[in-house]
Write a structure and sequence with these properties.
The chain is built from eleven helices and no strands. By secondary structure, it is mostly helical. Helix 1 crosses helix 5, helix 1 packs across helix 11 and helix 7 packs across helix 9.
Amino acid sequence: MNPTTPIHRAPDSAAARQALALAGVFQAASLVDELARTGQVDPRAWETLIEATVDTNPASFEAIYGGHPNNLRRGLDTLEALVGRKQANPVVLRYGFSLLMLMNKLRTNTNMMDSLGQKLTRIQGQAEHFGPTHENVVASLGEAYQETISTFKTRIVVQGDPSLLQSRMMPERVRACLMAGIRFGLLWHQQGGRRWKLVFQRKALRRALDSLN
């Protein structure tokens, strides 16, 4: 089998594609919370987010998240909480919805979108040289977030262990996660995702999640 062939083709359903993209947003939110509280993250969930963010020209929709929905399992589980099937972590939900709000601000700011696109293209070159999760790449992603998204008046205030949050590379890792959340938020919007749908079309989201399990 060709190693570049995805294990699992992307769903044809628009709702399922939106659910996968939204899972990326809430996976980023979940990892930000985990980093801030424990200093550790699930390697597979982390690598999926970072690789998606540095790949500025993916070959297909499924290539964005590494070819299998289980790479976004953490985010999909958070969406199960969003539709009322599991216990929700209010901090993670707050981070996720804040990321969607920041994504909308970014989307309407053409200059910032252009600037961010240029930064990510440079970072992709770095990732090809060092590897996507190398600390130089993570530091560059964090810097790109700080120079763009962080300049909005609305900011995400991360709660956690202050000593951990100030430890080496932790601010960069948190910002890189937030950048990944923005990346998946833009993907969600491109696939037709809208905030009002999360309120009025929960049944569609439930069905989409069922199709991905």
